Amino acid sequence: MIRLEPDLKADFPIFDRLIHDHRLTYLDSAATSQKPRQVIDAELDFYQKTNSNILRSVHTLAEEATAGYERVRGLTAAFIAGQAKEIIFTRGTTESINLVARGYGDSHIGPGDNIVVSAMEHHSNLIPWQQLAKRRGATLRFVELQADGSLSIESAAKVIDKRTKIVAMTQVSNVLGTIVPIPVLADLAHAAGAILVVDGAQSVPHQPTDVSAMGADFLAFSAHKMCGPTGVGVLWGKMEHLEAMDPVLYGGEMIAYVDRQQATWADIPTRFEGGTPNIAGVIGFGAAIEYLNQVGMANIARHGSDLAEMAYQRLKEIPGVAVYGPDEKRGALVSFNIDAVHPHDVAQALDAVGVAVRAGHHCAQPLMRWLGVAATARASFYLYNDADDVERLVDAIHSTKRYFQR
Amino acid sequence: MNLDNMYRETILDHNQIPRNKGTLEDPTASVGLLNPTCGDQIRLDVKVVDGQLMDIRFDGQGCAISMASASMMTEAVRGQSVAESLAVTREFKAFLTGTPPRRNLGDLGALEGVAQFPSRIKCATLAHNALEQALTQDGVS
Question: What structural domains and CATH numbers belong to chain A?
Answer without folding.
Answer: 8-30+297-404 (3.90.1150.10), 40-294 (3.40.640.10)
